User: Fold these one by one.
Assistant:
Number 1:
Amino acid sequence: MSNQNGRLTWKEALTGQMDPALAEEIDAFETQMELRRQGKIEEKVFAELRLRRGAYGQRYDNGRRHDGRRSREIPFPHPDLLKGPDTKWEAPGMVRVKIPYGGLNARQLETLADLAEEYSDAILHVTTRQDFQLHFVSLDDTPDLQRRLAAVGITTREACGNSVRNVTACPLAGICRHQAFDVTGYADQTARYFLGHRDVQDFGRKFKISFSGCNDQPCALAFIHDVGVVARARQVNGQEQRGFAVYVGGGLGAIPHQAQLLEEFVPVEELLPLIQAIARIFARYGEKKNRNRARLKFLVADWGIDRFREAVRQERRSLPEDPHWTDWLDKIPAYKEAGLPAPVAPNAPHPGEAYERWLSTNVYYQRQEGFAAVTIALPLGDITADQLRRLADVVRRYTRDTIRTTVEQNLLLRWVHTADLPALYRDLEAIHLHQPGAQTIIDVTACPGTDTCKLGIASSRGLAAELRRRLVAKNLQYNEAVRDIRIKISGCFNSCGQHTIADIGFFGSSRNVNGYRVPHFQLLLGGTRDQNAAGFGQALAAIPSRRVPDVVDHLLTLYMENRRQGESFREFITRTGKRAIKETLKPFTTVPDHRTAPDFYRDWADSREFTIGDIGVGECAGEVVSLAEFGIAAAEGLYFEAQLALDEGQIAQAEELARQAMLSAAQALIKIENPDIADTPQAILQEFKTRFYDTELFFDPYAKGKFARYLFDAFKPDRPPVNESLALQRIEEAGLFIEAAHACHARLLENRTAPAKPLPDWLKV
């Protein structure tokens, strides 16, 4: 409605600049918020509604509150805060902004900067899926924020929730020296087609699509997506025909799955109907009740690729024709980019030695002669609102107003005249965006971890910052031997930091040591980013968080001193063997006494004790605890032996060892209450079910017993025949089950023992 002077309100003015469908969606969300306040929409339903509009909950137990107060986790929105129509939700959350293929222009950068200052904490975060995230945003502000984004062509719709998430693509698309063709337009049009599409509204979980222009590079990581699309070009009657190889069923998470080839060559006009058919099969047959198995990867694994392929082909044949399948193809040429007609500052003075170092790590010379792409490295994926706003001016000056986000949590400035590189460096230096080392060992990837994520166990960002600081101090980004090694960190097992595909990966966990909770990280080695993420690393050891930088230094030294000519880090790990490497890690796994090294009991970037109160163990509990710890340690040993067996090609033995590892961990917990439990699998399974599953003692707040089901599935009488894929899955499940056993054991200690206090000096001998 217009104001009293007859002028348009800001809301009406923005609505005029928006896609009508987005404007209608945002209005509907405001109505749903009001109905939730009035108690007319259940919280469970409203949670999915807000997630589908990009609004996430956030944790607050790390001291980061606008008002300076420290509190435990607050749900978003907290039901207790809903007290009437005028009530505001006081617990801010995170808003994810969808950026298809990572493409942005200067005006959009400025809008994001404005919103970060006005509604958030003036910091924007680039994710591993090319999105932007704003934290500490009040839910009441999200409709206004969404309108201002929509006015510049950006949406938060379906950035979260059980939906088609952001469609990612290689940020080098169109300029890559290895590409089959530019996938930019195909990725963007796919995102547009499925945004709000009726066939993608009934998923049990999220659905991720990625576009890669080639087979070999890791720019788009197609093989870890629900649908991975890889460009192909072939000759037909002397003419080039464009198409795609389509892979399905990939994903990381707790149990990583490699995507499998669905179709070798899909003509471009068949791309959308094929993905639509995949989505319909997933919506119809994918798991709905058990969210832990509700991803497409589990359906593909359960059915097998041949059955899944036939179902998709049959579904495709039954689809009614849709003109939108092909009417977008005429728009593809419009996605072609080019540089400015001439350099804007070709005679700028040489910036010096630092510029040369920056050139060696941050500049990619395009397939188009005379042009380069420049990576703007963002440590931890963060950029301030002021930097982003000033970067918009840089984008306008040196390009035709385009920039892209990357899956490495950086920004990529494309189509820069090589003659402009010195001047561009000076301009980036002025806004502190000139850090060298992009896509080298110092460019550590990390998920939000305990900073803002409710699932975070350990501080992935704190650790990443410390690792970066130490690696930079040694100038390893310029060391040819190790510069290409990639380190990725997740705050928990869910792999949002993509630790599974790193050369050196870590995910957060915890251990109970002498009655104290101690932050740990599981070390994974052997992952592969190349070839669109072609291989997964495996867990090797649990390392106390404070020793992780020392472990990284140890592994790099071991590699540099013992590698063969031309041998990559992954090849070195394979040749040396996990057993030998694990032996060298033993000195790093011990935790010193709390009184002599209290820092070991705090997480990175957190001055507080890792757990509330000091947990002690009484004498009566000592013997019982030792039994449990002994059993879990035995499980760790079996788990490691299973990995070695798999490496040696002993598939059946590897699967059996993984099963026995889970059984050993379960028996260890049972012995806390029943030391005389029989050793038969049937007795252990029944006791575990009765004492830990039915009572939910084994359940953590988020997994809700899924790790327990790994044990039950492993001992079902109708288990499928063992193959390499199943053995690998069983090993991954065993590792997670053992982690859950450690956590359960620690919870039992916390609940059953009183705090232990250090002896006063006058009582010490």
Number 2:
Amino acid sequence: MRRSFILFLTLFSFISISCRAQYTPAKVDISQQITVIDGVTFYVHKVEKRQTLFSISRTYNVSNDVLIKDNPGLEHGLKEGDTILIRKGKAENVSAERTTPKDTVTVRIQAEHTVRWYENLQSIARKYGVTEADIAAANSLKDQKIQTRQVLKIPYPGEAEIIASGAKSEPQAVSVTETVTETADKDKIPERKRGAGGNYSASLIIPLGGRDSASAENLSGSFVEFYQGFLIALEDLKNEFSNINFDLRVFDSDRIAPSETASAGYLDGSDIIIGPVFSSQIEPILSYAFRKGIPLVSPVDPSGDNFSEKYPNYFHVGTPVSYQQRALIESISPEENIVLIFEEGGQDGQFVQLTRQMLQDAGLNYKTLSYNILSGRSIYPRFAERLVEGRANQIVVASNSEAFVSDVLRNLNLLKSRSGHEIKLFGTPRWRNFDNVDINLYHGMNLNISLPYYVDYGSEDVKRFIARFRELYRAEPTAYSFQAYDVAYFFLGALFSYGGDFEEYVEKYNRKLLQSDYKFIRRNIDEGFINSGVRLLKYRPDFSTDTGTPGR
């Protein structure tokens, strides 16, 4: 293990020389937009990528304390796209007065809001305690449609009625110079920016056994292999995106708690955060990343998809069981006989109910057979009653119990050998880990399984990855190695292709991966992303296997 650890550090040093860039704040230009609030003149500054409180305060010659006092939201951090107010210095001789025509209705503005990719008019109105009509009126929105990065004036409640009546309210903020905003077709996916170059930074949070404990040491082996696969993906991306400068920061969650990493500011300036790997550690980092406007990827743990309901910057890589089962159900033919088999009083009751609901939603007519394994051989006649001759019998077994599945296979095999029934079986991913089930029965009954991960060792890409892994680390890649390669290759490739706005295009973004298929969806406009991609594994009677991706 120690030798392997040294090897991967050596490789990382090589990658750092060729693609690492020092993090430096972006240049800050004094804004040309000025506003007056309660007699005080302010610059209206829109925060650009990599600008910091320090660089902004130095340019405008104002202290951080004053900035935070005038902009209370800065207590939670500064992020790209924020609009902040900065007091104008006395040395500047710029008039902040503006004459308002007598027949013009003045709208009181409480804030300016830059639209994020996951927001709509309803969510923005709810955030500021106003109505959609208030915002539409203040910004002359005819159809209430808004675009990403559009700057909206947020009025005080009730301003829509003032505009409609033609009455005037006492102004609290009057803009001296209007900002010219760029218009573009936001619905069109832009061409990738491979030739444009860029500077990007990613933070990777994984356990590397930094603490002296047996559990940490056991975990470190798996995630050293994860890191090794991650680095190979970086090498491939470096060749593809030759003009990109990239800084990878790695944090050992066994040495420093992820929440401490965030609170200490170590993650500031990240364009993307990958990790932590355990769902129990995710929320403190996810909350921080949300305030900073940084996408966060949960790369390993299959649980934690519920975080997508609260955080629109969240990406859940592990495909939930419901999406795995839905893909399997969608592969069933409605023209053939369908039988659902499950264990009576078993531990998979919730999974059984999910399967039944999906069969009904798909409009499939099916028979059911449930029994207790203690029924033994007396259950055989009930099996025979539900199968038909001359048609394919599609048997869906909603069970993860090895003992129950073994009994089902025994009965089905008897029926097949005695009566010649054509059987097509549908199981669960857990079946691949059963120790005491004859795999020949899987092939004999055309077993189909929906999997979140599957490595096709016949693939040329997989063969190349294994050869490179062996050469670099003198070891065999594990499932963690393949997983890390896929995560890095997909998400960093998206970042390098589309920049900081890659979230806007990720639902249509595709890359050929080693053991996964990523198909990210959002269940609601203001939620995060969940991977719905699966691979269908089919066991053939000739003892071969075949994989495919639903819908592709």
Number 3:
Amino acid sequence: MKNKKRIAILGGGPSGLFMFKRLVDAGRTDITIDIFEKKDQLGTGMPYSTEGAGNEHITNVSGNEIPELVTPIADWIETAPKALLDRFAITPKIYNDYKVLPRLLFGQYLAAQFDLLEQKANEAGIVYTIHYNSPVTDIIDLPEQNLIRVKIAGDRSFEFDQAIICTGHNWPIKHEGKVQGWFDSPYPPAKLALQLNHAVAIKGASLTAVDAIRTLARHNGVYFKNKAGKLIYQLSPNSDGFKMVMHSRHGMLPAVRFHLEDSHLQNDSLLTEEEIAAHIKGNNGFLSLDFIFEKDFKDPISQKQPVFYEFMKDMGMEQFVDAMMALRERADPFELMKTEYEEAARSIKKHESIYWKEMLGVLSFAMNYPAKHFSAEDMQRLQKTLLPLIAIVIAYIPQSSCEEMFALHDAGLLELVDAGNDSDAEPTEKGGAIYHYTDENGKKQSTYFKTYVDCSGQPHLSYDAFPYESLTAAHTISPALLKFRDAAEGKKLMQADDKKVKTDGEGNYYLKVPGVAINDEFRPVDERGNINKRLYIMAVPYIGGYNPDYSGLDFCERASETIAKSLFKNE
């Protein structure tokens, strides 16, 4: 055992599942694997357990869009316990790989995949240990001994050669529990099992908001289909006065789920790692956002959708986003969703992609990993311009969620407010929140809501929010920074807002972005640029500055592959 490489996976959710799969598939019997999970079940993580879902919540991906694990979902459905399938009214006969699944059911699939991986590890003679109910409380780097010490609840500690942080989602608590009627997130959804007789403010209009809507609606009324087959919502007599008001920065709803030509966000025409590296080398160490927009978005569209390409071929990134946003801004959001619902239904029925939307998802996925090589200027452009469009278009809201939102809106119980970029919710002593925003006419509004739910999604957490104090105290990790290509721009921004910019005193200026600095292998980098060879950070909330978009299971698959290659490199 002393001659084996000791590897720790910190977190047993989907990230930990894919990381474990990579290690098992490597077939290495010269390693030991320890998995630390804070709950008593592996695989489900937050999104696919009761921490993040109720019976009413569904995935926004179908079986054919899920990266390969041990067994396909269709095969697992054939063997899943009948009582489990009955709970969600699913049978092997009615299931197909193009349907979305209840999230809790999908969580059981992921848990079953973990069981199968354990069997594979046993058969291969790979030594592993699962530590249930073992939340990680601290991580200590021991460079002199070339080890990592992991501390868990109960003040127990373990030492490893390498550790991979896979701790997943984290929803910071600000006012929840102190201010009645204030919820910092809609998770766990059981806390929103409330029968109410007043309006509820919902911050955001993303899939996180849809989660809150699905839960609140079920506790204040019922859905049924009329004779024409249309879904209708009927408010409970005890919920008179209940309605939900979404507050969106752009006054827009997410786009509707459609058929993807390539369900795993891959494309043969994308830039290779070698092409990206060559471009960075020839561009003063920076990856150009315009370059990747042209090569990984416009060029593939020119081949697949020439008519649409003619429309946008001469547009730069900002022009294209402005054109797409203008189309959405001109339309009533619920009418636009109905139009997209019909468009998406045709796409799914014919198995034909809405290609520019698909390529926007592919672009987001493709640029996520090299985004740390953007200049500060390009990252600002990305955050201000492209990411808001990406967030709307690739949310992929499932059809059944659309139908429920239509029913609520038709009943006068679901509204959408364009709250602009300067909106803010203020907690009050009597409970609830006052929502401050500037409306479409430029008039300032302040509306009181007895119940407020922040549904803005998983935040990109700051460096200061990193939970393992010993790594911060020892400067093993450092804040994520992006260099300004034009030092004058950095200096100008620093004079306007010195909290956003840092200078090294040698004429270089850096934009502060959320989270921890990592290299291309997900290893933390300290302030001197030294790369830590004992630690990897795959926990998305803490690397959002260098990975501005992350796509669920696709992220888990890609990141775990990169880390697995790094673990055994140069041996």
